[in-house]
Amino acid sequence: MADNAKPVRPSWDEYFMGITEMVAQRSTCLRRRVGAILVRDKRIISTGYNGAPVNVSHCLDVGCLREQQGIPSGERHELCRGLHAEQNAIIQAAVHGFSVSGATLYCTNLPCSICSKMLINIQLEKVFYKEGYPDSLTSLLMSEAGIPLIQLP
């Protein structure tokens, strides 16, 4: 960088997505590492990554139930030891007493339809995501609820 050059600052969306990617590194899922953060007024309310509940063995330690049973991605969400990153972000906010109403979600992946229903009920404003997810019901639900889905590069 030249002496006169101003440093390049990321936009708020780039900033929050970068943090989300760091959060995903805590994931204990063997198939997909996902991170999520809930933000309101340019402040992080909570973070979440996909993994097993507290005091339950992680897939990293005992193997992937979904892999063992040949369950494709985007199907049979209930057959998994872990919670999704979005679910964990909502749960962490609740545990620590923070309202998530009116928040924006930044997530490394498009939420599944189960998470989408939860996000609709917390009165989410919008979703920024990096990669898609094979659950076509998500777009339908979010569109009907008036919640924009915005893919970031």
Please outline the helices and strands.
Layout (H helix, E strand, L loop, with lengths): L11 H13 L10 E6 L2 E7 L9 H4 L2 H5 L15 H11 L8 E6 L3 H9 L4 E6 L5 H9 L3 E3 L2
Parallel strand pairs: 3-4, 4-5
Antiparallel strand pairs: 1-2, 1-3
Helix pairs in contact: 5-6
Q: How would you sum up this structure in a few lines?
A:
The protein has helices at 12-24, 59-62, 65-69, 85-95, 113-121, 137-145, and strands spanning 35-40, 43-49, 104-109, 126-131, 149-151.
Q: What can you tell me about this protein's structure?
A:
The chain is 33% helix and 18% strand. Helix 5 (113-121) runs parallel beside helix 6 (137-145). By secondary structure, the chain is an alpha/beta fold. It has a 5-stranded mixed β-sheet, with helices on both faces. It is built from 6 helices and 5 strands; from the N terminus they run αββαααβαβαβ. It has helices spanning 12-24, 59-62, 65-69, 85-95, 113-121, 137-145, and strands at 35-40, 43-49, 104-109, 126-131, 149-151. It is globular and about 55 Å long. The two termini are 24 Å apart.
Helix content percent band: 25-40%
Kindly state the number of beta strands. 5
Helix/strand/pairing category: alpha/beta
Beta-strand content estimate? 15-25%
- Helices and strands, in N-to-C order? HEEHHHEHEHE
Strand order of the largest sheet: 2-1-3-4-5
Number of helices: 6
Summarize model confidence as the mean pLDDT.
94
What is the CA–CA distance across the termini? 24 Å
Gyration radius from CA atoms, angstroms: 16 Å
Which shape, going by the Cα principal axes?
A: globular
| Low-confidence spans | none
Can you summarize the main beta sheet?
Answer: 5 strands, mixed
